Amino acid sequence: MNYILSVSDLSKSFGAVTVADEQNFGVTQGEALGIIGPNGAGKTSLFNLITGTLAPTSGTITYCGESITKQSAALRCKKGIARSFQVPQPFSGMTVFENALVAATQAANLRGQAAYDFCIKVLEQTELLAKANIVAGQLTLLDRKRLELTRALCTKPKLLLLDEIAGGLTESECVSLVDTIKAIHAEGVTIIWIEHVVHALLAVVDRLIVIDFGRIVANGNPQQTMNSDQVREIYLGIDADV
Amino acid sequence: MDWVNAIIQGTLLGGLYALFAAGLSLIFGVMRLVNIAHGDLIVFSAYVCLTITTSLGIHPLVALVLVVPIMAAIGYGLQRGLLNKTLGTDILPPLLITFGLSVIIQNTLLQVYTADPQKLSAGDLEIASIKVGSLAVGMLPLLTFAIAVAVIASLQYMFYKTALGRALRAVSDNQEIAQLMGLDKRHIFGIAMALALAVTAVAGVLLGIRTSFDPSVGGGRLIFGFEAVIIGGLGNIWGTLAGGVILGVAQTIGAKIDPGWQILAGHIAFLVVLAVRPNGLFPRMSA
Question: Do A110 and A203 share a structural domain?
């Protein structure tokens, strides 16, 4: 398989707590992969390992054919790995546009007018253009989530990691966000999406991975995976919103 | 008229203090590093200029063309090679390391240049003045103030209008996220220290032209810099200029009352501001 990203035997533990346990999986170019799992299963830790803010205990991460396991977060970002955070973390003292510009100039290496034009294009896509000059710290939750997405897109990612970007949104907000993500995916960006709002996830992803206690317990077709016994067992008592 | 004169002289002196403070403020703002060696780096810049002017026979202000890049390079090297390793969640290591650095710089200067007071000779500029009404305003203090305003305006422009400034603000705002936007904070911190020491170089040369200096005077310059930053309010570059001016005016007025009260009056002004407005007069006004 021609993977854009693959992890092999990836493990990470903090003392007795294992957040990634011998994980093996790959994502093909242009794919949209969903990740679900109970709280504390190690989903966000997996993103931290892929982006480089956490170093794995063992195992390797391969991106575009080379091992990036030892590379810095900044370098991985420049190579096209971007993420959004579950709890939005804007540069709160800077405007929305400046937040976008930092990503466009530092990661995507754009300069001057080209950077401005690119940011405007992305802000249009994420529907934040009207709020471009607002200081990021004053945004509402939906707009902060949109800013997370904007900033990630301004790095010109090949691989976009979305961490519970639909969580906490109203139904109509969620629908418009899903449309935006579909449009991004249609442009050829590979997506890995962690989400508890399963119906939003299933509207986009081609494949689903289920993580529990740091282990990958299922990996395959979204509908079949959702109906599998493991998933039913993990989510027993939780109203699986399918 | 004497009092008006004291206020004008104090204001112009404030420009020099603002230059002492600008580098300190920049470093603290970007990486939360309190640089105890800042005063000694100012004095070190003056000695670098002294060596250049005596060996090449050029005017100290012309020598800035060399002193500024030399200090900037030292700043980048110092940050990448030493200070970056001290930065973390604990603020104590950088304090201790820069304190040690301060001792090392002072003693190295003592060893190389001896304890004899030195001065940078700027020729006619030192005594030139222009008449304003019945007052004579020195060209050098006027030039110092103009340079301070220019430096602070450039820093302000750099911070808010350039990609580098946005990078510095992004790292200052959230280091971890900035890394994920492709910013290498080790490099950004290096650039910040290079900029700070470039400003320090200007401050050191102007100090050296204005008064005599020896290896031990750094500590006093550090205090004046700190006071100007705190009076103006952390994170506000123009506030730092205001802080410098307030400190300078307080000192000259103090000296006017009694020559022995110059330093004391500055400290009192600082303490009053600290008591009344603990966050400074203009905290983050332009954030």
Answer: no
Report the residue from A73, A98, A99 with minimal CB separation from B179. Answer: A73
A67 with A97, same domain? Answer: no
Strand A159-163 with A58-63, pairing:
unpaired
Q: What is the mean pLDDT of each run of 10 residues along chain B (287 residues)?
A: 89 96 92 93 97 95 97 97 91 94 97 94 89 88 96 95 92 89 92 97 96 94 94 88 96 93 94 92 65
At B162, the amino acid letter reads: T
Q: What is the pTM of this model?
A: 0.87
Residues from chain A contacting residue B177 (CB–CB below 8 Å): 85, 89, 91
Using the structure block, give the residue that is written with the tokens 């030039």.
B143
Whichever domain contains A30, its CATH number is: 3.40.50.300
Q: Is residue B22 within 8 Å of B151, Cβ to Cβ?
A: yes
> How close, in Å, is residue A34 to chain B by CA atoms?
22
C-alpha span between B239 and B152 (Å, rounded): 10
Strands, E assignment, B49-180: 129-132, 135-138
Q: Do B179 and A111 touch (CB under 8 A)?
A: no
Q: Domain boundary residue among A156, A185, A200? A: A156
| Same domain flag for A163 and A242 | yes
Give the number of domains in chain A. Answer: 2
Q: How far apart are the first and last CA of chain A?
A: 30
Among A156, A182, A201, where does a domain finish? A156
The answer on A138 and A201 residing in a single domain is no
Q: A177 and A60, same structural domain?
A: yes
Are A59 and A103 part of one and the same domain?
no
Q: Which residue segment(s) compose the domain that A121 sits in?
A: 89-156
pLDDT tens per residue, chain A (242 residues)? 679 999 999 999 998 888 999 999 999 999 999 999 888 888 999 999 999 999 999 999 999 999 999 999 999 999 999 999 988 999 998 999 999 999 999 998 888 899 999 999 999 999 999 999 999 999 988 899 999 999 999 999 999 999 999 888 888 888 988 999 999 999 999 999 999 888 899 999 999 999 988 899 889 898 888 888 778 877 765 555 54
pLDDT digit string (tens) for A53-76? 999 999 999 999 999 999 999 999
Does B166 sit within 8 Å of A51, measured CB to CB? no
For A106, which of B174, B182, B287 is closest by C-beta distance? B182
Count of CB pairs separated by less than 8 Å, A with B: 72
Residue B57, burial from CB neighbour count under 10 angstroms (0-12, 13-18, 19+): exposed
Chain B stretch 192-251, residues whose beta carbon is closer than 8 A to a beta carbon of chain A = none
Residues of B in contact with A83 (CB under 8 A): 180
> Are A171 and A241 contained in the same domain?
yes
Nearest Cβ partner of B184 from A74, A91, A155? A74
In this predicted structure, what is the pLDDT of residue A16?
A: 86
Give, in degrees to the nearest 5, the angle at Cα B72 between B71 and B73: 90
User: What value of ipTM does the predicted structure carry?
Assistant: 0.81
Compute CA distances B223 → B30, B35, B155, whole Å: 20, 11, 22
Q: Are residues A20 and A71 in the same domain?
A: yes
